[in-house]
Amino acid sequence: MKNLNVVIIVPILLAAYMLFLSGAATASDSPILTEVHLIGTNRLSTDDVVRGLGLKLGEATTRQDLRRACDHLKRINIFHSLNCHYRVKGHSASLTIFVDDKQDGLPIVFDNFVWTTKEELVTRLKQELPLFMDRLPQSSGLTNDIIRVLEQVTSEHGIKAQVEYDDHFWTERGMNVFYIDGISTPVSSLQIEGTDAPSSEKLEEWSKFYTKENFSAARLTWVVRWILRDLYFTRGYLHPTVGEPVIESLGEREGTYPVRVILPVVSGAQYKFDSVQFEGLAKEHSEFLHSKWKLKMGDPYDEAYVSSFTFDEILNATWARHSKTEADVALPCARINEASKTVSLTITVEVPKKTYPAVEQGHEECGGIMSTLTFPIVH
C-alpha cells in the first residue's frame, strides 16, 4: 500500500515542478517596461505617448505589445514618418520612437463652436486623446476620434447635431476644419484691438458688408486679409502683426448663434512715401504720369492708391496701347528703407506676354508689404 502512495505522489510532484518552471519561463518572457523615448518632436510628451499607445511604465509587457503599439502609431499617421526600436535586456524593456516632424501638418480649426473656446476644446481633446496635437496631417487616423469627442461636447451643451470634417475645401486651403452641421454663426459685430487701430466710425462703415454675411470662424480669415489691405496698408502700416481672432457668442437668436469678432492687431511702424519712378515707358508718358501722381513725399505710404493709380492711369489709359512698349502689364515694386522708414516705388511697364491683360502686384517680391499672422489663414 505504501508503494502505491509513492507511485501516486511522484507524478503530482513532477507536475507541480513543471508548472513552476513554466511560470518562471513566462515571467522571463514578460519584461518590465522601464523606458519610452520619443525623438524628433517636442509636440508630444513621453506621458502622451505612453497613455496614447496603451502602455504602462513599470508593468510587464511583451514584444507583441510593443510591436502593436508601434503599428498603431504608424496607422494613425500623425507624423510624416517614424521608426520604432524596442530593446529587451534581462527583465527590462525599452521603446524608442524616432519621428520626422518637419512637416507638422495643417492647423486644427473649430469652425462654429462659438459657445466655447479653442483652449477648452483642445484641453478636452487632449484629455481623451493623448496623441492629439493642434496641427495634424490631412485626414489623419485621429479624425474620427476627434469628431467623437467634439460630438460629446456639443451634446453636453444641449446641441444635438453631427460634427463634420471638411477633407477637401478647407484642407486645400491649409486647414483641418471641424464644424457642427447646420449651426449658423453670423458675424454681427467686428472690433479691432491694438496699436493704431482705425476709428470705430471707419471700422463700422467698412464692416457693413461683412457683418451682413454669414461668415464662420474659418471664413473669417478672408475678412482679415481685407482688414489689412483696406485699414492698415492704406495708412502706411506695412508690417502689421495679427493675433488669433477672439470669437464671442452673443447667444441664440432664432436658431442662429451670432458672434462678435475681436481681432488683435499690432500695427508696427508707419512707413512714409519717398519717391516713384516709371520704367518701360516712353519719356513723355513717364513725365505725364509724374504730373498725375498725388502721393507726396512724407505722406503715409498707401498701397490702395498705388494699385488704383496703376490700373486707372496706366493699364486703362487711352494712350497705353500707343506707347512704344504697348504695355499690358505694370509691376509695382516697393523698396523699404528700414532706417528711415520710407518707401521708394518703381512701377515697371512691360510688353504684353499674352493676349489677356493682367495686373500683377510685385510688392512682396521686392521685400515690401508683409504681414505676420499668428493663426491659420486662407490662401
Mind sketching the topology for me?
Blueprint: H1 2-28, E1 32-39, H2 46-52, H3 63-76, E2 81-89, E3 92-100, E4 106-110, H4 118-128, E5 135-136, H5 143-156, E6 163-166, E7 176-180, E8 187-193, H6 200-211, H7 220-232, E9 241-242, E10 246-249, E11 259-266, E12 272-279, H8 283-292, H9 303-315, E13 329-337, E14 342-350, E15 372-373
Parallel strand pairs: 1-3, 4-7, 8-11, 9-15, 12-14
Antiparallel strand pairs: 2-3, 4-5, 6-7, 9-11, 10-11, 13-14
Summarize the structure.
The protein contains 9 helices and 15 strands. The chain is an alpha/beta fold and 379 residues long.
Describe the protein's architecture and organization:
The chain is of the alpha/beta class and 379 residues long. The protein contains 9 helices and 15 strands. Strands 8, 9, 10, 11 and 15 form a 5-stranded mixed sheet that branches. Helix 4 packs across helix 5 (143-156). The longest helix has 27 residues, at 2-28. It is elongated. The chain starts with a helix and ends in a 6-residue tail after the last strand. Mean pLDDT is 80; it is low at 4-28 and 354-365.
